[in-house]
Amino acid sequence: MGTDFYNKSMFYGANTDTFRAAGILRRNMTLAEHVLWKKLRNRKIFSVKFRKQHPIKFYIADFYCHSLKLVIEVDGEVHNNEKTIEHDDARSGELEKLGIKVIRFTNDQVIYDIDSVIKEINKGITEQTPL
Questions:
Q1: Which of 5, 36, 73, 92 has CA atoms 20 to 30 A from the CA of 81?
Q2: DSSP state of 54
Q3: Distance between CA atoms of 54 and 10, rounded to whole angstroms?
């Protein structure tokens, strides 16, 4: 299938610049993103496929499961200021308009309490799994 099919289905029309930026982010993941990716990749824990730094429209999701339309975001300290929180909320709202559920964790949650993060992701997967 051609690029147009993928842009419309899995990438929601993401453009070349967004794909390029996602590639850069993939090569420069944070410690917390690396920790979580070890758990998500290759269906190690969950039976669904996740992609890292995945372009969606003009956003880049930290982790995305297309089959469930589930985004997982890992937020560092930069996400603690009011302006960034508003931006993140607006971004989540835009993704939710596409039918995509967004789950957010802090870097500290991922690094220091990965078991709770895994439980919360499992809950999100269960909620998004069609009956």
A1: 36
A2: E
A3: 9
Q: Which domain holds residue 68?
A: 3-128
**Domain containing 115 — which CATH number?**
3.40.960.10
- Taking 3-state DSSP, the helix, strand and coil percentages for the chain, each rounded to the nearest 5, stand at 55, 20, 25
CA dist., res. 74 & res. 44, Å (int):
19
Name the domain count of the chain. 1
- CB distance 63 to 54 below 8 Å: yes
- Nearest Cα neighbor of 11 from 53, 42, 48, 73 is 53
Q: Read off the tokens for 100.
A: 């995509």
